[in-house]
UniProtKB/TrEMBL annotation:
This is Response regulator transcription factor. Residues 5-119 form the Response regulatory domain. InterPro entries: CheY-like_superfamily, OmpR/PhoB-type_DNA-bd, Sig_transdc_resp-reg_C-effctor, Sig_transdc_resp-reg_receiver, WalR-like, WH-like_DNA-bd_sf. Gene3D superfamilies: 3.40.50.2300, 6.10.250.690, Winged helix-like DNA-binding domain superfamily/Winged helix DNA-binding domain (1.10.10.10). It comes from Cohnella nanjingensis.
Amino acid sequence: MENNLILVVDNEPELLELVEFHLMENKLRVIIADSGAAALKLLDETAFDLVILDIMMDEVDGFAVLERIREIGLEMPVILLSARHDVDSKIYGLGIGADDYVTKPFSPSELVARVLAHLRRAHKAVPIEQAISYSYGSLTLHPAAQIVYKGKQAILLSATETQLLLALMKRPNQPIAKKQLFEAGWGHAHYDENSINVYMNLLRKKIEDNPREPRYIQTVWGVGYVLAGDPG
């Protein structure tokens, strides 16, 4: 982990200095850039293990840099920074290849924790179920990106929502007990039925045309939930 090289791109000098300090405190090597153009030049010259990239910059913004990173085939994790809190910006950024999205103001310790987590994942083999996509009807789930497409509409999911929908999409038309879904979503067996019900309602609000009359995520009374309905 100590040999990892991080590129930090932002047009705010104070923020660059703050992020650089905290990353170096965690024994990471850091190169900074104060513009999108400078970042593109560095990316052509140097191999980075992770990029922290501000969106709102003059001339060449963060989205343009990210698109270029993916166009030339670079696969390092990219964490976007932005003062934008709207969901559309998050969906767009994740949809074009970002691995994470952090809104300003943020805790430096939280950003460092996210950086370290992404570096750990980048050095591990990706489980096959996370690397592929799953489809049912008009839904296509990309677990690694935490995005489900409903037709051409990209819908951003939380990590828990992703794991719950993945569990359902791996077993379409098969009722799954709430306890099994809880273990899939939270990764432990301390079952909380209310949490399952809340998250299923959140998922329905995101993917159903009418959450009160769900087409996809249906309740199986006394058991749990099933991904069913018209798959066409």
